[in-house]
Amino acid sequence: MMNPEVAPGPFTDLDRFVFESWGYLVIPDVLTPAEAEEAYEASKRLHASRERAFGQIGQGYHTEPSLERLIDHAAVLPKVRGLFGDRFILQASWNTMQPAHAGVGGWHQDGSSAYNFNQVGYPVPLIQLRASFLLTDQLEPGTGNMELIPGSHRSQVPLPADIRAERGDTPIGHVICAPIGSVLLFHNGVWHRTYRHDGDRDRYTAHYVYSPPWVRAADRFANSEDFLERTTPMRRALMGEFERPDAPYGASYQPLPFG
Ligand SMILES: O=C(O)CCC(=O)C(=O)O
């Protein structure tokens, strides 16, 4: 199947059209294979002390510089800015491990168990924009890919319960095939799942979720003072630590320091 592939960097009118139509973009060549490999090794360290099973760990940016750098990557941030404007935060960072020879995950939309996004309105609003850095080659199906249903963020009906319960296939599932270092950027409303992984090497993916600044962070209850102190002004702002003078009518958030 074709990929909704766009160039790294500026968010063009065509990028917007592709994103609005399918609900996601694929950006190739964001990381060099060496950079992705460095982030892969960092991911391994993050997951080293837990059982070797599918799982996600937050806040990897605290201890791993190669993961911190991805927070505001120049190939990706302009796309996020194009969609959210000048005010947004890093709502969460999840580093996902899928063990070698694992099966498919469950179908879902990203959201919340409390007043889920699809209760807010139709079409499901863009509240969590996820940039997924592929730290392994996923050139063919069965390599720990992500599978997405194009345009499903606009569907008025949910994916049928029986398909979800049995983790079944659909005729319109798109298994994303892309090389190491690519980024998948997708809307919370797109139905998606982890696809099967037939390979021998565990798969790690570094996910960065961006939201409007009024959304509460999910991978932390509070920011680490040490991290805020030593990181860059842009990353500090993305942690939600930018100036927010008390002012009513939602006018209070300062733009991010784009320079
Ligand atoms: O397999 C993955 O890395 C991503 C899992 C997923 O779909 C999610 O975290 O929403």
UniProtKB/TrEMBL annotation:
Keywords attached to this entry: Iron, Metal-binding
One Pfam short name: PhyH
InterPro entries named among the record's database cross-references: Phytyl_CoA_dOase-like
Gene Ontology molecular function terms on file: 2-oxoglutarate-dependent dioxygenase activity; iron ion binding
The keyword Lipoprotein is assigned to this record: no
PANTHER family with a match to the protein in the record: PHYTANOYL-COA DIOXYGENASE DOMAIN CONTAINING 1, PHYTANOYL-COA DIOXYGENASE DOMAIN-CONTAINING PROTEIN 1
Official protein name in the record: Phytanoyl-CoA dioxygenase (PhyH)
Source species of the chain: Actinopolymorpha pittospori
